[in-house]
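Posted in: Structural Biology > Protein-Ligand Complexes

Title: Requesting predicted complex, heme C in pocket

I'd be grateful if someone could produce the 3D structure tokens for the following input. Sequence and ligand are given below.
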Amino acid sequence: MKSLKVAIIASSLVFPGLAVPVFASTAQFPKMPKINTSKYPKGELGRMVRLGENIMNNTYKNPLTKDMVGNKLNCRSCHLAGSDGKPGTAKGIGTFIGTAAAFPAYSKREKTVQTLQDRINNCFMRSMNGKRPIIDTKASVAMAAYITWLSQGLPMKMNEKRPCGLYNSNRWAKSVKKFAKIQRKATHQNYLAGKEIFANKCAACHGVNGQGVGSFPPLWGKTSKGEWLSYNTGSGMSKLNKGAAWAQSNMPLGQGGTLTDQESADVMLYVDAQPRADFDLQKGLFPRDKMGYYNSNVLKEHHSVKSNFKAFGLDLDKIRGTAK
Ligand code: HEC
Ligand code: HEC
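-- Reply #1 --
Done. Output follows.
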């Protein structure tokens, strides 16, 4: 018995990838626990958790949230489902496992301490290209209930640095930093390489023009009626470093972790150079009586595809090869 134990420990030292498959090369990151999602809480709480789950799966169609969404995405488009089929239980960057246990948490972007509901609303304004649901509404409470359910039994550990759960925080920060370095060196050649990777590894699901195919979500552009399809230029995904960090961890679907650093950087350089909605924070905040209180000390923010490239010292026209 004893020797068997030793053998298991020894083999996990020799093959660390076998013991901790998700974080094979990143031993400093905490191992993600398994959360049992087979049983909902009882009574009204269970109904709210289920409603939250349903909203995350159908955010742009659900009657409680559709007016808050300005594109054709759902929360689960980026907070991917794991093997239990529930949004946010996949293990890549963007998991909701452990998220609620990190809140309230400090956010550098808003320069305030944010609640989980504040954090959810920020994805509405940016990733969903929409508006902030009022905190006390059924939809907002239901989403917070669902995310909190995915931290049941985990120890509280409020995050002093960023509004991120324990299993996202450090790997997100590390990856974002890595890709910032790479993206600052981007040229038109990287754009062309990204275009080719997109055609070979992404277009089958997301469409050659990034418009989405069936239930595979859109990455950029507009409908024939002129409505924006995907995330806006204030979202994390639209930033050249953050988009690459998310994509490397999660895409192609089911094959997260297979793109090299340079491939992830190039493909998101290409994707994030395509047309998407400008972000104007002021527009999302007013009228105040409809939006409720906005817990932020930063009240002005404006971004475009061009300014997102400029943030890395890049000229969008030169990168795209359309400079005159
Ligand atoms: C276009 C992609 C995208 C969509 C759609 C999206 N998010 Fe996010 N979200 C992100 C990214 C990127 C992060 C930052 C990565 C991270 O913190 O793990 C994030 C972070 C979060 C976090 C903090 C998670 C953590 O532990 O760090 C919450 C909570 C959240 N989103 C809620 C939502 C909700 C609710 C919706 C739907 C209304 C939504 N998001 C839609 C991209 C998206
Ligand atoms: C096998 C199909 C498939 C392939 C291939 C694939 N994706 Fe995805 N992708 C998805 C699905 C499905 C989702 C949303 C998950 C959900 O709704 O459950 C998604 C979500 C995304 C999102 C966030 C949501 C959005 O629409 O903005 C981005 C960004 C993305 N993929 C980029 C890529 C890139 C870059 C590649 C190529 C390297 C790629 N994907 C390859 C299926 C795929």
